[in-house]
Each structure stands twice: as C-alpha cells, then as structure tokens.
C-alpha cells in the first residue's frame, strides 16, 4: 500500500522531482520533493503521538464537525468500527457513520461528559442536542495504536424532542 500525502491528498510517489520552491517567494511548490519531505515529516509526527494525543485531536476535530480532517489525521485506513447497525471498515465506514450521525443530529454541539484513557484504550461518554433530536447516552470506546484509531465501538440512542 502506498502512503498518501496528508497535505496534497496524493500518493507520496506522485511527488515530482521538479523545482521545490517558487523562485520569488521561496514557497514550497505543490508536487515537489520539498512538499514530500514536509508531508513525510508531518505523517511521522502524527504516527508518534500518544493515545491521549490522538484521542484529544479526534474529539477536537469531531466536535468541530471537521470529519474529513479527523479521518485523515486520526482514523487508520483499516479501522474496524462496531456500531448497532453492524461492522464498518476503514475510512469509508467511518465516513458513512459520520454522515448518518450528521443527519440524525444536524449541527448539534457535542458535550463530552466523561473521557478516559489508559494505555492504548480510550472511552468517551457524550451527549448532543439538535433542534429535533437529542442523544443522552452516547458511549464510544477506542483502540489507538501508532497514532491511529484502529478500532472503535459506538453506542447512542436518538430521541425525538
């Protein structure tokens, strides 16, 4: 599997050997080897994060409804998610579940009522309320390895208001 560049959303091997910086500004040019090196550095740094760092980043991005950025930074490509609707795989599975949640609770702010991290495991209790629905019993668990969420369970009940 070829790793993907988190900055340009393309394969590392797609970066060219062309000039690395704009002559007048010194800005790193898209597709250059300099961009590749920067992206690899970012990716390496993300993979060195502790479980607590990944968990905090995930909650910050998810709470801000920044799901695509959260997927790229925190969710392993082969992540397994267990949810009442079934077993979901990878970022496409996570993306599908995020869409469902966004439809059930449009633009709802999340309240994180309990956060626990121990080693590579994390647990979250949460609530949310939108105009027409709410969740009072959200509970998610996570397995985090090498800077990635590799497994997650999700439970919540949507109640009409």
Provide keyphrases for this structure.
161 residues; alpha+beta; Nuclear Transport Factor 2, Chain: A; seven-stranded mixed beta sheet; 4 helices; globular
End-to-end separation: 46 Å
Unreliable residue runs = 1-18
Radius of gyration: 18 Å
Rounded average pLDDT: 83
The structural class is alpha+beta
The amount of beta strand, in percent, is: 25-35%
Tertiary shape: globular
Indicate the CATH class of the largest domain: Alpha Beta
Number of beta strands: 7
Q: Could you explain how this protein is built, in words?
A:
With 161 residues, the chain is an alpha+beta fold. It has two domains: 12-47, no CATH class; 51-160, Nuclear Transport Factor 2, Chain: A, CATH 3.10.450. It contains four helices and seven strands. It has helices spanning 33-47, 51-63, 67-74, 90-104; strands at 75-83, 86-89, 110-118, 121-129, 133-145, 148-155, 158-160. Strands 1, 2, 3, 4, 5, 6 and 7 form a seven-stranded mixed sheet that branches. Strand 3 and strand 4 (121-129) form a beta hairpin. Helix 2 packs antiparallel against helix 3 (67-74). The radius of gyration is 18 Å and the shape is globular. The protein starts with 32 loop residues before the first helix and ends with a strand.
Short description:
This protein has helices at 33-47, 51-63, 67-74, 90-104, and strands spanning 75-83, 86-89, 110-118, 121-129, 133-145, 148-155, 158-160. It is an alpha+beta fold.
What's the SSE blueprint?
Layout: H1 33-47, H2 51-63, H3 67-74, E1 75-83, E2 86-89, H4 90-104, E3 110-118, E4 121-129, E5 133-145, E6 148-155, E7 158-160
Parallel strand pairs: 1-6
Antiparallel strand pairs: 1-2, 3-4, 4-5, 5-6, 5-7
């Amino acid at each position: 599997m070829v790793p993907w560049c988190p900055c340009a959303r393309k394969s590392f091997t797609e970066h060219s050997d062309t000039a690395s910086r704009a002559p007048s500004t010194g800005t790193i040019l898209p597709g250059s080897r300099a961009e590749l090196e920067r992206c690899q550095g970012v990716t390496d740094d993300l993979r060195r994060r502790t479980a607590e760092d990944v968990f905090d980043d995930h909650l910050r991005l998810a709470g801000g409804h920044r799901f695509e950025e959260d997927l790229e930074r925190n969710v392993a490509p082969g992540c397994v998610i267990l949810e009442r609707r079934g077993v979901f795989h990878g970022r496409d599975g996570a993306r599908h579940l995020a869409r469902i949640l966004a439809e059930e609770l449009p633009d709802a702010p999340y309240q994180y009522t309990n956060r626990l991290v121990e080693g590579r495991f994390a647990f979250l209790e949460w609530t949310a309320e939108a105009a027409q629905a709410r969740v009072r019993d959200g509970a998610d668990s996570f397995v985090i390895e090498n800077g990635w969420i590799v497994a997650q369970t999700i439970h919540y009940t949507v109640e009409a208001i």
